[in-house]
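Retro notes
What went well: the complex prediction finally ran end to end.
Inputs used:
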Amino acid sequence: MPIKKHDRAKISEGDIVLGLMQQQSLLISHLIEFAHRHHGDGEVVSRRVEGDIHRYTWSDVSHRAKQVANALDDSHVAFGARVATLAWNGYRHLELYFGVSGSGRVLHTINPRLHPEQIAWITNHAEDQVLCFDMTFLPIIEAIHSKCKSIIQWVAMCDADKLPSGTNIPNLVSYEAWIGKKSASYQWPNFDENTASSMCYSSGTTGNPKAALYSHRSTLLHAYAAALPDVMGISARDAILPVVPMFHVNAWGIPYSAALTGAKLVFPGAGMDGKSIYELIESERVTYAAGVPTVWQMLLTHMKAAGLKFSTLNRTVIGGSACPPAMIQTFREDYGVEVLHAWGMTEMSPLGTLCTLKNKHLKLSESDQMKIRLKQGRAIFGVDMKIVDDAGIDLPHDGKSFGDLWVKGPWVVADYFKSEGGPPLLKDSDGVSWFPTGDVATIDNDGYMQITDRSKDVIKSGGEWISSIDIENIAVAHPSILMAACIGVQHPKWDERPIVVVVKKPETQLTREELLAFYAGKTAKWQIPDDVVFVDSIPIGATGKMLKTKLREQLKDYVLPNL
Ligand code: ADP
C-alpha cells in the first residue's frame, strides 16, 4: 500500500483516525468522588476562626460538598452563576471549592485584604449571587452589603447559634443552617470540561482588577501536574499545610492536588503568625508546607527566638515573590527542610516553574547546587515559556540574555473575565499567541528560569538594568536585616539609581555605611545602592508581597545624597 505523504499544512477530516478510548470530561467533582472512594478516612484538619481544632475526613468533605450543591439548587442559583467566598483556609471553604464548582457554579474567591470598596466593586463585576464569609469579615460585609447589587444570599460561615443578631444584612443565613438539613446525596452533573469552575481577581495595582476564569479542564490538568515528583511532589503520605490562602489563586491548587492524591490537609484558619503556624506543623505532623516568603520569615524569626526545631516538616514550596537565598539556606542548614522555589501567577493557575535539581546536578558541590536552587526553576510540562526582546524576537536560552518572559499552555489565561483591560495575548513572529507575564527573566540551557525582576520594578541606570531582587537578596543576607526593598530613584545623569529601604531586626545595630560596605564584592560596584533608608516597616500588599508602588509613594519627597 503506498504510504501517504504527510502534509502538515493540510489535515483533512477524512485523514483523522480517532482513538478508541472513553470520552470523559475532566471535572472537579471527579476529584472529590475519588478522594471519598479511595481516601475516605484521610484527614482534613482545620484551626477554626473560633480558635478550636476541627477534624474530619475526605468522606465528610464529600458529603458536605453535596449538601452545598443541594443548598445552591434550593436557593435557585443558576448553573454558571458566581458564588463568592471571603474566607480563610478551612474546611467549610474546602466544601465550597467542591460543592460550588462540582455542581456547575463558579467559585469566586475574594481576597479579604483588599479595600472594602474594591471588594464591593469586584462582587458587582463578577455578578456574584451568593457570598459566603468567615465571621472575621462581618464588619466588611456590614459596610459594603448595600453596594453589592447582585447578591441574593449572604452566608455567614458559622454554626446556626452563632449567627449575628442585630445586623441589617438581608437574606443572611448561617452556613450550618444553610446546608445542615440538606441531603448528602447528589448526582454530580456531567458537562463540558471547558466550563468555568472558579475565578480569581489579580491585585489590580494598575487599573481595575482583572479576573482569571479557570475551567474544570485547566484545574484538573494543573492538579495532575502540581502533584508530580519534580513539581510539588504530593503523595498520600503527606500532611500538607497550605499557608498560602485559598483566596490567592486557589492556594496554588493544593486543595485539588490533595484530593487527587489523598494527602492529609491542615488548614491554619486566621492564625498566620509564626507561633500558630509552628504549633500546627508540630501537632499535625505536617510534612509539607507552602507560602510566600513573608510568612516564612515570621515563622523562622519565632523559631530562632524560641530555639525550636521541626520534627516532621521536610519540604516547603516558597513562591509568590523571590525567595531570598538566606531563607533557602536557613531552612536547609538549620532546620533540614528542603525549599522548593516556585514561580507562577494568577493568570497561570498559578504554577509555571518549580526548582528541583536534575540527576546530573547531584554530583555538584553544595554551593553549586545552591546556585541552581535560587533560580525560579524549570517549566512544568504543560507550560511553554520563552524570553523575547522589545520587538518580540526570541532571545537565547543561555542563562545570560534577559528579556520579557512569555508563556502559553492549557492552564494559562486566553482572556480576562468580561475582556477587562483588552486582549492580553501577544503574537510572536510565527503568529503564535503567548501571554506576556510582565516579568523579566533569563533561561539557561538546562531550562532553568530566573526572574531578574518585574518589568515595572527593574532599575534602569545609565542604560543598564539593575535587578532589584539581587539588591534585596544581598541586604537580607545581612544578619541585622529583617526585610529589604530596592527601588529606583530619579537621577539627573543616570536616569535612575537604586536605593535600598530596610527594616532592621529588633535590637540590632547597623549603620548605612556598614550595610553599603556589605555589598562590596557581592555585586558590581555600579549596582551598589546609592543610599540606605531605615524604616520601621515596609508596606505589604493583599497577597503578602512588598508593595513597592506604595513604598515609592511614601518616599516621593526623598532626595538622593550628593545631588
Ligand atoms: P499580583 O502579585 O499581581 O497579585 P500574582 O500573585 O499573580 O499577582 O503574582 C505574580 C507575580 O509574582 C509574578 O509575575 C512575579 O512577578 C511574582 N512572582 C511570583 N513568584 C515569584 C518568584 N518565585 N520569584 C520572583 N517573583 C515571583
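What we learned: The radius of gyration is 24 Å.
What to try next: split runs per interface for comparison.
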